[in-house]
Design a protein that fits this description.
Blueprint (H helix, E strand, L loop, with lengths): L5 H5 L9 H9 L3 E4 L11 H8 L15 H12 L10 E4 L1 H13 L5 E6 L4 H9 L2 E6 L11 H7 L4 E7 L11 H14 L2 E5 L25 E6 L12 E5 L2 H13 L5 H10 L4 H24 L13 E5 L5 H10 L6 E4 L1 E2 L13 E5 L4 H17 L4 H10 L1
Parallel strand pairs: 1-10, 3-4, 3-5, 5-6, 6-7
Antiparallel strand pairs: 2-8, 7-8, 9-12, 11-12
This protein binds pyridoxal-5'-phosphate.
Amino acid sequence: MPTVSDRGRIMPNSPIRKLGPLAEKAKEKGIKVYHLNIGQPDLPTPPEALEAIKNIDRTILEYSPSEGIRSFREKLVRYYQKFNINVNIDDIIITTGGSEAVTFAFMSCLDPGDEIIVPEPAYANYEAFAIVAGAEIKSIAAKIEEGFALPPVEAFEELITPKTRGIMICNPNNPTGYLYTREEMNKIRDLVKKYDLYLFSDEVYREFCYTGAPYISAFHLEGVEQNTVLIDSVSKRYSECGLRIGALITKNEEVKQNVMKFCQARLSPPLIGQIAAEASLDADPDYMLNNYNEYVNRRKFLIDGLNRIEGVYSPIPMGAFYTVARLPVDNADRFCEWLLSDFQYEKQTLFLAPASGFYTVAGKGTDEVRIAYVLKKEDLAVSLKILEEALKVYPGSKVKHTVLSEKS
Ligand SMILES: Cc1ncc(COP(=O)(O)O)c(C=O)c1O
């Protein structure tokens, strides 16, 4: 039998999806599973997008240009202007989701053996995309006690070697919800300048910043315009995960040329997806506002509720729709499995994402989980109750042991 590739072997399983079969089994047993594990928004897609799909007036569903449909890219130029991101149509390349944008960014800028520095916990697929490109992630742990703020510059500098080619950030952050301050972004800019690195900046959650603190895009930083590769996606912004539309934005001509070769090889981003994504840019401002307000309410409700449960701690996320919470458990991977395979509260249980999968360093995040607030408030209320009850009876619960020892 032929052997499979080493590259495939070292590809990590998605920490979000790997417990899926256990969730399916729980459902087969008649248990309702609350999915807090995945960033699949439950809010409606803009009606403009759905109408555009219904009204497609074409006789051939053809390839689109490899860089994406021109009218869509033109409209995106105006969209980014609203965020003070000043780019030209030629700087915007449409991709098959933000996922392909990250992959093409790495493939276009990095060679096998090159290294990029990523503050962790981080969006898990960066590691997978780095493996695809043969590159290696060097991670720096952000700390839950510091709300997952940017680790000190010295920690970055310690990791810089002749192989270091870039820094990857996600702002606002998945999984932590952290939003980098102007000061932190300036520190990143200075590092990028000093060592002439790429700055890969994933800003797919820009619409979801909740604290009034400014959103600082990598394109707001002076002097690193040629180093910056911005990653974008409509998946979260408009509840359009299934459209598979994203974008890679750069002013660096050489990078663009490389990216375009990968784009041409895969021929075209999805046609229907682009039609719907373009129409979404005309969504009623109330659409965004309603979704935004919904997340604001859920965030407060969830974080207050989590911090009320004995032994649980969650910092207050400033953006996106996730938080990483610390649980009083021996091992969050085991706890998440146990929730699906051995526990139910009134025929209900939770699907949480163990945070260990968002770190590349073994042993990190072992008592942390990522929770996505992509369920309505009533469901979040039930979820909090289930978590509280689960922690009382989980065999590896530190809370239960405290309670027992108090009684004994
Ligand atoms: C931070 C971040 N970047 C990129 C992606 C990829 O999104 P998509 O490929 O659906 O556009 C996601 C999806 O969850 C994400 O959270």
